[in-house]
Every structure is written in C-alpha cells, then in structure tokens.
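#help-structures
NK: newbie question, is this the right format to request a structure? protein is ABC transporter ATP-binding protein
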Amino acid sequence: MTAITGTPLLEVEHLTMRFGGLVAVNDVSFTAMKQQITAVIGPNGAGKTTMFNCLTGFYSPTVGRLALHRDEGIFLLERLEAFRISQQAAVARTFQNIRLFAHMSVLENLIVAQHNKLMKASGFSVAGLLGLPVYRKAEKEAVELARHWLDKVKLTKFADWEAGNLPYGAQRRLEIARAMCTEPVLLCLDEPAAGLNPRESGDLAELLIYIRDEEKIGVLLIEHDMSVVMRISDHVVVLDYGRKISDGTPAYVKSDPTVIRAYLGEEEHEELPPEIIRDLPEVAEREEGA
Ligand SMILES: Nc1ncnc2c1ncn2[C@@H]1O[C@H](COP(=O)(O)OP(=O)(O)OP(=O)(O)O)[C@@H](O)[C@H]1O
C-alpha cells in the first residue's frame, strides 16, 4: 500500500457484507479523498458493486462504518436510508445498466433530478401553484444548472430529444449529467465506460477530470477499462474475492505482484488488462530484447 495524501471525503472502515454464507465484501477499509478520483477495480465478482450498494443505501452493511465528511459535519452512511444518502449526504450514483427516464426529454431528465430542491422552493406545492417569485427563481436556476451540464456533456443540441433515442454513449453521459444536477459532494459511477468506443472513453475521461478539477467533486469509480482507470485516477483500490488486496497510486497498483496474480488467476493471461501485461517481468524482458 502507498499513502495517498489529501483531505478525507469518504472513510470506509471494516466494511463487510454477507449474503447468507457468501461474504461479498470482507473487512474492506480505505479512504477516498476530496477532489480526487478513486477507482475501485478487481476481477468479476470481487465485490465492487456490492460495496457501492452499501455506500448508497441499497444494502445495509453487515459490519462497517462509512463516514462521509462534509462541511456541515460527518454523515454515517450505514445508518441512513437511501433517499437520505442522496438528499442529505449528497452522494450521487449511476448504475451498470442505464436508468434514464427514456420517454422524457434530455432536458427534462436533468430538471427531474432537481425535484427535491424544487419541491422545497415550492413550499411542497403552494408557492409553485401560486407561481410565487421564490419558486420561479428556483425553477430558473434549475434550468440554468441543467443547461450547464448539457453543455459539459456535449448534449445541448439534443436537449429536446427523448432520452431513450440518444445513442448509447450519449445516454451514459446524460446519466452523469443527471447525477451532477443533484449537486453531489461524492459521485459514484459504476462502470461508466462499459460499451463505449475509444473516442467516447476519451471523452468520458475528460469529463471526469473536469468534474474533479473544475467542479472540485470527489469521484468513486468502478471500472474495468484500465486505460481510463490508469489515466485519470489519483488512487486505486483493488478488491478480489471481497477482500482489499492493494491500495495506492495507479503506478503502485499496476506493478503490485498481488494485483497481477489476482488478474492472472491460474494461467489466464488474456484476462489481464494491457497496462498490467506491459509491466509483467517476462513481457518487459521480451520487449527489451526485441
Ligand atoms: N443480492 C445478492 N445476493 C447474493 N449474492 C450476491 C448479491 N449481490 C451480489 N452477490 C454476490 O456477491 C459477489 C460480489 O458481487 P458484485 O456484483 O459485488 O461483484 P463485482 O465486483 O461488482 O462484479 P462485476 O465486475 O462482475 O460487476 C458475487 O459472488 C455475487 O454473486
């Protein structure tokens, strides 16, 4: 493990999630820092999505403390219901499978994401029904925020399209925009590059860098695409069979023999991500000799 410096945003301590006899996440601890991209990687079934489900209230962890540090104080996520984790702790997430409102327009998807803020401004309908200035102001701000994110994900010209008619890569970007419209402090993305072509993966990487550097939001990223992970992450946590097996900078993790072994399995070299294959001693020697 190499030390990652920064200001803690999310402290995961001894997280364990059991399903009957199966321990999907086994005593995992790490700290994700503010304004950093922390990637969680590992072979299929390693426990990555289960960990996300614990963080976002879909599962109640068997054991563990999940402390989110905000200016307002510390939120213990394991004690909060899912809707409070998103509304009060300001944790947003996307899923492996796309979950947009397919029959709403692209812009409407981003306005609906701000429903809680708008409901509050409307005094839970009264001010909204009466068209009071406080509600009109909130509505205008919601549209401005939506337009800001449409621009950032390069979907402005598709604002009136039905979301379900967008190409796949654009739907993925819209999901991230929708999550950002909830104004999170922590953005959790479950395999955002899945199914993207290399150009779209490049755009995604740029977008995540923008979210970190300009919007100053912490990102927790589950991703199998190692070219994206190694390029943009500040910190990589590796899980295997539910346990944390490595934790550090991308450079440290990709040359960690434990990680190489986990991806290699027994004799399955082809499963190893190319970035890790390049660092294998036998490959490096071969390339030097060539
Ligand atoms: N609700 C559940 N009930 C029982 N077992 C579950 C449940 N959810 C996940 N598991 C099991 O927990 C283990 C970890 O699964 P998980 O989906 O978290 O892995 P993952 O690292 O996200 O995998 P992938 O990269 O394939 O998405 C797997 O063995 C899975 O079958």
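mod (FA): yep, format's fine, and the tokens are attached above. The first strand starts at residue 8 and ends at 19.
NK: thank you!
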